[in-house]
Amino acid sequence: MNFSRINLALTLIILRISFIMADPTLENLIEYEQLQYYPEQLSILEEIKRNPLNVNSASALELKKLPWLDDTKISIIITARTSKPLINRNSLIEIGLNRDTIKEIIPYIRFQKQKNYAISSRYRLEYNTKDAATFNSLKCYQKLLYEYKAFRLGFVTQKDCGEADYLDFYSYFLEYQGENFIDKVILGKYRLRFGRGLLFASQTGIAKTANIATFNRDPALMKGYSSSFESWDLEGAVIKFKTPYFQLIPFFSRTGLDASLEDDRISSFREDGIHIDDSNKNNLIETISGLRLIMPLSDLKISLTSILQNYSREFAEPVFRKDQFLSGLDFSLDKNDYIINGEICYYEKKTAGIIGFTWKQDIFTNLFMFRYYPDKFPNWHGKPYYSSVKTNEIGFHYGLNIKVNPGIKIKTYFDTWKNPRVKYWEKMPTSGTEEFLQIELGRKKSKLNLVMGHTKKQKYINIIDSKIRDIDSFTGKFTYSHSIHKFVLKSGLYFKQEYILPEKKYQKGLLFYQYLKIDLNDLILTGQVSCYHSDVLIYSRLPGLNGTILNRQFSGDGFVYVINLKYKFLSHFEVQMAVLGNSNKEKGNYLGIQLKMDF
Amino acid sequence: MKLITIIFIMLLTNTLTSIGLNIPSSALMNGCSNISLLNDQPSAFSSNPALLNPGIESTASYLYNISDLPFYGLHINIKYRNLGWSGNLSYLNHSLYKEISAITGLNLDLQYLRSGISIQYLHVNISGYSQKGVLLINGGISWDVGKLTQSFYWINITSSCIKKNILPVYFVGECCYNWDNAISLAIGLEKERDFDFSYRFGCKWQFFPFLGLTSGYQYQPERLSFGVMFKLIKCRLDYSVRTHKELDLTHYLSLSYELFKN
């Protein structure tokens, strides 16, 4: 009885104290709900939503436009940002703003660092147990980027497994971003991507994708080379001049490449960048001089590019000259209902071209695309439409995207191609067709993705047994993801079946995976388990370190698991660790550690 | 004292009335093609650590109706708020081969998401040859999406070995659609290391509060199963039968008592 009374008394005291100590912002919250906004205020908020305020630079008067911030909160923000920039939602929590206020103001603010400089660095170590016997088996990568006002300085190094030199691959650049006639200048190593990528492209070219928007995205790029891919970098200088009527990009590069040689002549370029034996490293000097002219004419943009390539050695194929002159024209016409874009390139009486026509109508978006790459067309820096395609191909692609509603999207395409020239030996033409269907259901929390693809190839080289044969393959992918609070769960099933015509036999494979992600703001834990039983190569994407590709192809029987841990600390640091375990001892287990620092 | 009496009666009853043995951990698992999501009894934990149903369950059977292969099991699950504990014991007794499996583990229930991890001690005694004990770790997760319940569990995460032979490693994904409180339909995909995928389908129909039916089908290898459930207050009796391609029918009997339920 006495205890009950004491409990009651204590409860009352605690309640009273809680009432006295209640956060004064609670009253403000109640006020917010009762606020009746006038149309003028609404239009101001709409305007701010379109151009959010930078909390690190907005004046007190500007911040006052947000009705959820009173004078006290504004002074808290201004005081806090002078000592340390506010970088995200957590920064606002740390300085004492309550979560409800933050939730309200988030659509109207942005976190842009108001400072003249920025330093970003990344250090990565990777190790695979299968390389234990190899000397210098660690793979090391570091990237350092320093920004000061309009300047950007970068230094990247990479050493692959088995390489002794920590500077086996390095990149350096100084980039200047101007605001007037000189728009951009890069000295050092850089990369270019122009037009549809026939002359200069990214590593993979334009991927064959069901997403039509990807094809129409303007791929133009000119930036310092900060990638870990050890190929396709240019070394020298590039400048972009910009006027209201035209843009001009002269560029020069002189760099060393790895080439496979036959009788001291170039038989092919090597892309792997691995130099366990240094004898072939940079055994070829490539010199490129080029000029690009861009003419923006309202909705139409036309560009002309000319390049002169010189190699220090002759080619084994007499078609390829030591001095090569390539020229190209690319264009893009972007109207509301349709987009036409393409590129035509010319080399030694050979013309390569790609043209796409995108047409939108209500919920439908159509893409008609035609491509033609003649045999033996230079494709070292430029990549054709699809990365696995080299040259000698004529193809047609029709894609259709249907957005029934935000929760239902259907993407499909049909692709057919033919290699008009003899490819492997005499009287063996290669051709193929591909049909693809992707259905995406669900929106934010739950998503269902069903993918089906069918490919028929004639005279195709099978990777496993290196035999030339006709092949008819069917692939199916089923993934279902669901988010519960801080958890993301994803289950996936991949199926692949190949029918090999000369032997008249079926080969099939199945891979099942389960993915789990736990996001605790500063700590993110990701895990995936995949098990497979397959006669054919079956592909799975694995959650590796940020900035790396940990995708694998499997065959046979086995399982693989990945655990990825990412932890952010002291607001500037992020450490990430990925562990991959494999039932197949020959493929080995993998460990990757990465440290990221941003100031 | 009450608990001990119940356990004793259950063990005694099962031992006396058992008419078969099976690999699944209980009669309900046997009757629905070994799909753990359809198992609402304590034995579910021994297959899938993500599932913890408070209570006591005792099981007994003869494997493939072979009287020389008696199999007994006892499962106890306790749950306190979000946290659950499970203890499981099974015993396979043959004059030439004896196997004891003791599983204990913890389960965390976050309303829509459940996860669990268990440690299994497996002791094998091959008459006149060797005795060997090994520890295995199993784990699982289960989550709800409306009427859909999904689960994934991994048996023998550590790929533990006995005499340099890796014990079976299983990966199982399951999905169950709860049509209403009475009908549940489930599919399962099982992958055992070095074997092809196996597919399972199962359903459970509780058409009266005291009476229910289960059935299941497994593809690769093909097996059919049927079961019946009787419930009286907190006690439940399950009986099921399952076919085998080459061997005799497997009968299974389980008796359980629901306790400590929130």
Please characterize this protein's 3D structure.
The complex is a heterodimer of chains A (599) and B (262). Chain A has helices at residues 2-20, 25-34, 39-50, 60-63, 71-83, 89-95, 99-105, 212-216; strands at residues 53-54, 109-110, 117-128, 139-148, 151-159, 169-177, 182-193, 221-224, 234-242, 247-257, 259-262, 265-269, 284-297, 300-311, 323-334, 338-347, 350-361, 364-373, 393-405, 408-419, 430-442, 446-461, 468-484, 487-500, 505-520, 523-540, 552-569, 573-582, 590-598. Chain A contains 8 helices and 29 strands. Mean pLDDT of chain A is 83; it is low at 8-39. Chain A has a domain at 2-110. In chain A, strand 11 and strand 12 (265-269) form a beta hairpin. Chain A has a 24-stranded antiparallel β-barrel. In chain A, strands 1-2 form a two-stranded parallel sheet. In chain B, the strands form 2 sheets. Chain B has a 14-stranded antiparallel barrel. Residues 6-22 of chain B have low confidence and may be disordered. Chain B has helices at 2-17, 27-31, 44-47, and strands spanning 55-62, 70-80, 83-93, 97-109, 113-126, 130-145, 148-155, 161-162, 165-166, 170-178, 183-192, 197-208, 211-219, 223-232, 235-242, 250-257. Chain B contains 3 helices and 16 strands. Chain B has 262 residues and is mainly β. Chain B has one domain: Outer membrane protein transport protein (OMPP1/FadL/TodX) (Porin, Beta Barrel). Chain A binds chain B through residues 446, 480, 482, 484-485, 487, 489, 491, 493, 510, 512, 514, 516, 529, 531, 533, 557-559, 583, and chain B through 112-113, 141, 143, 145, 150, 152, 154, 159, 169, 171, 173, 175, 189, 191, 193-197.
